[in-house]
Amino acid sequence: MAAMASAHFLCNNHVFHHSSNSFSKSNQTSFRPSGSVLFHKKQRTPFVNASKKQLEIVYDPDERLNKWADEVDKNAPLSRLTLFSPCKINIFLRITDKREDGYHDLASLFHVICLGDTIKFSLSPSKSKDRLSTNVPGVPLDERNLIIKALNLYRKKTGIDNFFWIHLDKKVPTGAGLGGGSSNAATALWAANQFSGGLATEKELLDWSSEIGSDISFFFSHGAAYCTGRGEVVQDIPSPVPLDLPMVLIKPQEACSTAEVYKRFRLDKTSQVDPLTLLEKISRDGISQDVCINDLGNNL
């Protein structure tokens, strides 16, 4: 299973716990599943001829950005940080009601998996704007992106004026219901808090996150949680599956907009099974096909 965006990181049968005291200037911490690519790698260009000799040119953009980050504030305890941002699956998903505010009430068992993105944060000299880049075309790089929304939210809540260069190495497919954007937002909140010396508690980060998204709160859990409300009410539970359980994810080429899915959703076509009954059965007997109920998947 995978890492959490909070201080609890579940990955490959290990739990990594990090406090704000474990970071120092220029520390580059990477939380990732085995087999993923570290962000800090030199990129090599092809050989070029120079005076009949072969000359290898090595371009290392990360090193240049790291030097710039170190120069932003030489007294800063932390100038850059690389974090793993896991996605999640819904072991079951019950939609129980439609609310007056237009959202739906749900009851779901969320669980992180070891598929995730890698996000690199570096302090920026700017005091007015974050700069976001990514390896995937079509991902918004402005305030529509949940990473930028999360950083703006943190500055609003704390009064801190840190701005960042951010690179998102995206592996989680978009429009797949895997919560990749929500995880990125939780990771950004946690990172901003580390750069600020841990001004906010994780409980505060969790509470704030519901202002910009419903699923973000889950990524401050321990990795498995029973989520209700819009998804922002999170109750940690012991993992109902072995952490080394093999899993196959199938993602069609088509993406599904969450807003569009809920717009077409029909409450009269949902399962009538009590979600607490599902949770009790999973806790007692483990996961089986009959408890993997998805009201969204069976409704459209």
UniProtKB/TrEMBL annotation:
One of its GO terms (biological process) is terpenoid biosynthetic process. Residues 145-220 form the GHMP kinase N-terminal domain. One of its GO terms (molecular function) is 4-(cytidine 5'-diphospho)-2-C-methyl-D-erythritol kinase activity. Keywords: ATP-binding, Kinase, Nucleotide-binding, Transferase. It holds the Pfam family GHMP_kinases_N. It comes from the Eukaryota. InterPro entries: GHMP_kinase_N_dom, IspE, Ribosomal_Su5_D2-typ_SF, Ribsml_uS5_D2-typ_fold_subgr. NCBIfam families: ispE. This is GHMP kinase N-terminal domain-containing protein. It comes from Manihot esculenta (Cassava). The lineage of its organism: Eukaryota, Viridiplantae, Streptophyta, Embryophyta, Tracheophyta.
